[in-house]
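note to self: dont lose this again. the chain is below, predicted strucutre after it. 242 aa total, dont forget to put it in the shared folder this time
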Amino acid sequence: MKNFLLNSNEKYIIKLFGFWHIFLMLFILCVVYFIVKNKSKLINLNSKKKKKIRIVFTIILILNLFIRRGAFLIYNVYDFHFHLDINICNFLNIIYIIYGLTGNSKIYPICFYLSFVGPFIAILFPCINFSVLNYSFYSFLITHHFVFIFNFIFLCFENYKYISKDFKNIFLFLTIYFFIVYCFNYIFNTSYLLPFEFVNNDLLTNGFINYIYHSRILIYFIYFSFIFSLLFLSRSILKKIN
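---
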């Protein structure tokens, strides 16, 4: 059990643009397309069914959080330099848990946009070093792929439409979030913004990418540019769906 919960294994790893990576991306695309095509059916579900689906989703996120962090505490390997849930994806999971428990529709716009600047990046660039023999693999799928799919289900449940005020608020929210986390990184020598993991793979660490990888200013500039580009992409997708 300890090996399953903690150890990384070299077999069955998702390689960047390998078979499983492409398969998972196509699977996500098909599922999201199916959800959007059946938007009206999801909108018209009665409130009790919507609540049950939301609660089941929330329970899965809570269990994943307890298993992932609980294992680190039980086996005495918890380290705040790595295991605080303040990077975008884990932070989004916590916000989604709050949304799932309260059903507060005012929280959902944050969830929608963060799903594109967090889990969506991990779906495109899965820089992971664990396998199906390791719980971290399943935690990775729940934290990113599972959350991204349900993001569109809740989009239908809420019948959420583009509101310029929400977009401006999330832009400001992300700016403040990045500033706070950057300060935390600087003070405690952590790397919770994950820009270096974003380019840390065999395909991207060559040539010019290898050069900017060693330039902290350039790598942060490219990372943040990509993040905010995805934010505008999410706005375009939302307008298109509406």
